[in-house]
């Protein structure tokens, strides 16, 4: 049974101040991968104000979950059509009943089994999250699923091994050992730093030293 936003609000207390309760990332490799996913998408969508990105942030979705302290915080998640602002956690009943539109988990030795099974079932059956991906930054295992009817179906990779995200309108694929975004035309979505480096190189080609413009 799925509750409407109004039904959720009537049943749940005010929880706008609930803090996230997630453990630290498994390693610096996982942290850097997460930061890469966040920074690239925020830079690409820098002129938009209709989304929220959660990074290692708890998603609160029921009173029973709070009572049992059964917290399930995706490593990366995106909610579209919402206000872009800081939040200490994502509280479903305080957000018009919205669940993540896409989730990416970064696998590790200690979490891989949970991510492939328990969390996959939760995101499929309770969250009804349209797309779910996982990626292992160490052995580069990569998979993606799209909700078709009631079940997740594996997304078919391209010849390059990329997976198309309808939610992002981008490809996800592994490049230089990192999970990155690519446009529909196959162009790598850069980080802000990569964008600055490319601009500096273009200026040098034109005979202009970037430092002289500071």
TrEMBL record:
SUPFAM superfamilies per UniProt: Restriction endonuclease-like
This protein's UniProt keywords: Endonuclease, Hydrolase, Nuclease
Domain Putative restriction endonuclease stretches: 27-170
Domain of life: Bacteria
Family annotation (InterPro entries): Nuclease_put_TT1808 (IPR012296), Restrct_endonuc-II-like (IPR011335), Uma2 (IPR008538)
Molecular function via GO: endonuclease activity
Any matching Pfam family: Uma2
Protein name per UniProt: Uma2 family endonuclease
